[in-house]
Amino acid sequence: xxxxxxxxxxxxxxxxxxxxxxxxxxxxxxxxxxxxxxxxxxxxxxxxxxxxxxxxxxxxxxxxxxxxxxxxxxxxxxxxxxxxxxxxxxxxxxxxxxxxxxxxxxxxxxxxxxxxxxxxxxxxxxxxxxxxxxxxxxxxxxxxxxx
Amino acid sequence: xxxxxxxxxxxxxxxxxxxxxxxxxxxxxxxxxxxxxxxxxxxxxxxxxxxxxxxxxxxxxxxxxxxxxxxxxxxxxxxxxxxxxxxxxxxxxxxxxxxxxxxxxxxxx
Lengths: 147, 109
Description:
The complex is a heterodimer. Chain A is an all-alpha fold. Chain A is built from five helices and one strand, in the order E-H-H-H-H-H. Chain A has helices spanning 27-50, 53-58, 65-77, 79-106, 112-141, and one strand at residues 16-17. In chain A, helix 1 packs antiparallel against helix 3 (65-77), helix 3 packs antiparallel against helix 4 (79-106) and helix 4 (79-106) crosses helix 5. The longest helix of chain A has 30 residues, at 112-141. Chain A is globular and about 50 Å long. By secondary structure, chain B is an all-alpha fold. Chain B is built from four helices and one strand. In chain B, helix 1 (2-22) packs antiparallel against helix 3 and helix 3 (37-50) packs across helix 4. Strand 1 (16-17) of chain A pairs antiparallel with strand 1 (23-24) of chain B.
């Protein structure tokens, strides 16, 4: 299993991006994620057509990508890495609530393109803000890791 | 329209997954496992095909789905830790269905 950090380390930035890691990405892994994303989009679309737009909308937040992501992670880096990824997904899901609230509030008010951008920004701001708050709190208190 | 949703849904999920691959540490990368990729793909098509009011109704439903995802992912921490990634994440998806259904019956119906 790899020794890469699972959560922010002392003296290291709380979050960052390392583009060099892309060279380790397997095309087959991305293919699995593409298939899950395409499949989930079809399921959400069918649910909207068969039941109602509201039911279809619920499926826009179905965690369909997680089984693929967590299973691939566990295979490559172990169960603990999958658990940490899921902890991050909790925070990302809080961002999804912000996305949906902004979209529901604005779609009939302003231009749809602006709504999609504003909702995506709301997701990023909410998810990153909660992540940074939790990471800073963890660094201060040094307790067992929790989301 | 379903084919377009499938194509852009797959592409957006892959794009967010690549961003997640670059992110460190793992917990930060996890944020991108709950990115609004499928939502963006579907809502963009819905807006073009059916108009903003339809997209607004879908977004209202998504609020309940997103709250269910917070609950399911939080429970998933224990489910994955004790059941492994495959069984834990499948149980997590099952829990999402239960919570979302309860939310639909309580709030949306």
